[in-house]
């Protein structure tokens, strides 16, 4: 295939992968997901899967199978309000602007003019001013995404706190019904064998009740749970099973009759092939005239044991450490969420308040700082436990024996991975994790340390299997020893076991990956003061810098790019010395000096000090044009371009307090 052009090579590879092997492409250039600007704040903690709601309240994106997305709006997944005065139902409305072709026995078409959406991740607010009723509903959506928390932050749950304000001069009985389809809106919903059952879970005098929806697929089966908290003045009722593809009149009339559901006992029959089922839970209370009451509902999902695409290994999610891996945790998860969300919110507010109240920061920045963190959970994220009985040698491979704290760290904090993007299906893509890693190390530093140990193991080992790269058509081995991998694998394969899912370029010759490892190691040490981590990583930093030194072809202390797209900007060709890679190199050399100083390695300190002195002079001489640094030293038409990211190395030094005096690069 090497004689073919890139489009031809890619198409042949894509056809074999998607049409013959029936697998997803790591980057699908031919079937991109259409842009829909509908998404709001996702539900769920870190690594247990996510369910995303749109800003109009719909449940519209599903990532329960690790790294796999389903973009399906499931129309049965709704909140419905019922208002009753003096024993009569005066208002019953699905809180959705949709007018679907199914469930036509329900009252759809809520006027969007009377609803408002706000999000500040991991919380969101939907306000409904019920037209003509003088009643205002505020649904506050909360997920357990809590900095420096390694238990509750792993839980696959979301809580909906409904604040009801009654502006009328009479009492109102208010019911909120939460309906949910058994599944994610995919063809598996009709595969048969799925069933629902009511549940109640009581602990320490607190009771939660609802319905479990058991989704019995062959691979990665799971249970959904919808529930509400029972307390004085609040009743919880349920409807175990109804057909979401039908008219839906039975559940609608049940609620309409008395603001409650019939609560039949016993489990539903398993669905037949082609059938789909749904359930509903309802929380009800009386709100006094001019008064206020709160109803608390939750959604939990329990997919404790997961396979990636290869189905070779079974992985247990992080939350199973606390709630078990038997597939029966949904009631306990629901109870825990409804009893602990107030504590979560206090911690979230303590974290966010100093930023939100800082008048020196613009509003757009505050919004971005928190709302873009959604990718921590909704980046196809997985957080899994090490298998019981796992030994250090099982993790280290032939060459990783020097990583003394690898096993203890991974045993205590598990393994963490997230995708480059929802359509770029590679876990822990390292050239861009370099940028995103600040969120991890500042908020969940142990996950960053765990990720770095995984990368370090991969660095010192190799994968000699040959394969062809799509851009060049050349064949090379998957992973060379003593170089940083591009990624730790594809969710459609077996991450951690088979790395470098990226087939576009052979990244062994990329100039930035090794440097970004060194920069992160010192940055992590600077922020965590973890001396053992630094000692473990120091030999790995030394070998990757030795690998990088071969790119300094003229021995002037500065690496050269190779005349192809050999760094994270993988469509941009770079020749010779460059501002971006050269700046990263000098910053990494600078940090090698600092680490050698901290660890008392005088020989290494002298070696890298000499390189830094030469390299700084070469960088200025070859790239500074009197106003700014040139893109590269090729003197081509593009070499004098200003690259916005040219000072990335200096930025990293600044983040570590190393951008002054002797360390000024």
Automatic annotation (TrEMBL):
The chain positions of domain Glycosyl-hydrolase family 116 catalytic region read: 414-660
Domain (Glycosyl-hydrolase family 116 N-terminal): give its ranges: 40-344
Cited Pfam families: DUF608 (PF04685), Glyco_hydr_116N (PF12215)
Q: Which domain of life is it from?
A: Eukaryota
Molecular function (Gene Ontology), one example: beta-glucosidase activity
Q: Which GO terms describe its biological process?
A: carbohydrate metabolic process; central nervous system development
Instruction: State the name under which the record lists this protein.
Output: Non-lysosomal glucosylceramidase
**Organism field:** Merops nubicus
């Amino acid at each position: 295939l090497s004689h073919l052009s890139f489009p031809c090579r890619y198409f042949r590879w894509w056809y074999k992968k998607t049409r013959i092997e029936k697998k997803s492409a790591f980057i699908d250039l031919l079937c991109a997901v259409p842009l829909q600007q509908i998404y709001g704040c996702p539900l769920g903690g870190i690594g247990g899967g996510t369910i995303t709601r749109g800003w109009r309240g719909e449940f519209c994106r599903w990532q329960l199978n690790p790294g796999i997305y389903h973009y399906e709006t499931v129309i049965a997944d709704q909140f419905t309000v019922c208002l009753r005065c003096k024993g009569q139902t005066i208002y019953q409305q699905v809180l959705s602007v949709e007018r679907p072709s199914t469930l036509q026995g329900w009252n759809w078409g809520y006027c969007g003019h009377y609803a408002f959406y706000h999000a500040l991740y991991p919380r969101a607010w939907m306000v409904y001013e019920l037209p003509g009723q003088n009643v205002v509903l505020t649904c506050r959506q909360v997920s357990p995404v809590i900095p420096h928390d390694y238990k509750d932050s792993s839980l696959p749950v979301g809580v909906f706190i409904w604040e009801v304000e009654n502006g009328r001069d009479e009492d109102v009985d208010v019911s909120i019904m939460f309906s949910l389809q058994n599944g994610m809106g995919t063809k598996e919903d009709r595969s048969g064998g799925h069933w629902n059952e009511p549940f109640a879970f009581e602990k320490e005098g607190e009771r939660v009740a609802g319905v479990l929806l058991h989704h019995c697929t062959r691979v990665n089966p799971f249970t959904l749970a919808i529930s509400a908290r029972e307390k004085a003045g609040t009743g919880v009722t349920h409807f175990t099973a109804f057909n979401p593809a039908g008219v839906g009149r039975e559940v609608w009339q049940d609620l309409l009759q008395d603001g409650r559901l019939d609560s039949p006992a016993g489990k539903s029959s398993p669905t037949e092939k082609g059938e789909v089922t749904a359930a509903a839970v309802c929380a009800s209370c009386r709100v006094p005239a001019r008064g206020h009451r709160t109803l608390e509902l939750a959604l939990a999902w329990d997919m404790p044991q997961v396979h990636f695409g290869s189905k070779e290994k079974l992985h247990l999610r992080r939350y199973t450490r606390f709630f078990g891996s038997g597939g029966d945790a949904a009631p306990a998860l629901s109870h825990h969420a409804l009893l602990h969300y107030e504590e979560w919110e206090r911690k979230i507010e303590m974290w966010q308040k100093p930023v939100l109240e800082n008048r020196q920061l613009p509003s757009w920045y505050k919004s971005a700082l928190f709302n873009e963190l959604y990718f921590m959970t909704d980046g196809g994220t997985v957080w899994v436990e090490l298998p019981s009985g796992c030994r250090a040698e099982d993790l280290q491979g032939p060459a990783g024996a020097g990583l003394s704290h690898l096993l203890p760290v991974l045993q205590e904090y598990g393994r963490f991975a997230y995708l480059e993007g929802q359509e770029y299906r590679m876990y822990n893509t390292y050239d861009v994790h370099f940028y995103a890693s600040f969120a991890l190390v500042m908020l969940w530093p142990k996950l960053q340390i765990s990720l770095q140990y995984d990368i370090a193991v991969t660095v010192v080992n190799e994968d000699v299997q040959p394969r062809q790269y799509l851009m060049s058509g050349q064949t090379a081995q998957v992973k060379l020893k003593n170089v940083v991998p591009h990624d730790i694998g594809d969710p459609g394969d077996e991450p951690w076991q088979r790395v470098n899912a990226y087939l576009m370029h052979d990244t062994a010759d990329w100039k930035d990956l090794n440097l970004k490892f060194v920069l992160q190691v010192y940055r992590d040490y600077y922020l965590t003061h973890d001396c053992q981590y630094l000692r473990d990583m120091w030999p790995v930093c030394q070998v990757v810098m030795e690998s990088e030194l071969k790119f300094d072809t003229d021995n002037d202390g500065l690496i050269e790019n190779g005349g192809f797209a050999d760094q994270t900007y993988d469509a941009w060709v770079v020749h010779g010395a460059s501002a971006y890679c050269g700046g990263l190199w000098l910053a990494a050399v600078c940090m090698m000096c600092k680490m050698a100083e901290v660890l008392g390695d005088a020989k290494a300190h002298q070696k890298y000090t000499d390189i830094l002195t030469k390299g700084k002079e070469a960088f200025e001489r070859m790239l500074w044009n009197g106003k700014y640094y040139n893109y590269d030293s090729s003197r081509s038409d593009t070499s004098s371009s200003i690259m916005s990211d040219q000072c990335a190395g200096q930025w990293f030094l600044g983040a570590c307090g190393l951008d002054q005096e002797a360390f000024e690069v």
